[in-house]
Write a structure and sequence with these properties.
With 118 residues, this protein is an all-alpha fold. The protein contains six helices and no strands. Pfam families: SpoVAC_SpoVAEB.
């Protein structure tokens, strides 16, 4: 069990280090860094490498933003096999809709409960 936690910490930490290097060294904006990490996760899933990484590192690979890209491509590929080209679009929405809905709902609740400074 300790080894699972260790690998999750190492892999998740490496993903965060990559994001920090993109900020500090390459001077990318948060939007560019976020987009690059999502695309990297999508590419890794398209190559069949992200699911084994999740199996190996658990939350260390499934929590960072790279997992969102993985989810988009994974859903699209599964639904494309079932429904063809229309499945590419529906698969992306089917897999990610609960997370996006939760972010919108919690963001709205936060906006109601807290007053912004300034």
């Amino acid at each position: 069990m300790f080894q699972s936690f260790l690998w999750a910490f190492i892999v998740g930490g490496l993903i965060c280090v990559i994001g920090q290097i993109m900020f500090d060294v390459f001077k990318l904006t948060p939007g560019h860094t976020l987009s690059a990490l999502v695309v990297a996760g999508a590419i890794l899933d398209g190559l069949g490498l992200y699911e084994p990484l999740i199996a190996f590192a658990g939350a260390g690979a499934s929590i960072p933003i790279t997992s969102f890209g993985n989810s988009l491509v994974h859903g699209a590929l599964i639904e494309a096999d079932k429904h063809g080209i229309i499945g590419v679009l529906t698969g992306m929405f089917e897999v990610t809709s609960s997370g996006i809905s939760a972010a919108i709902i919690f963001g709205f609740i936060g906006a109601l409960l807290f007053k912004p400074k300034g």
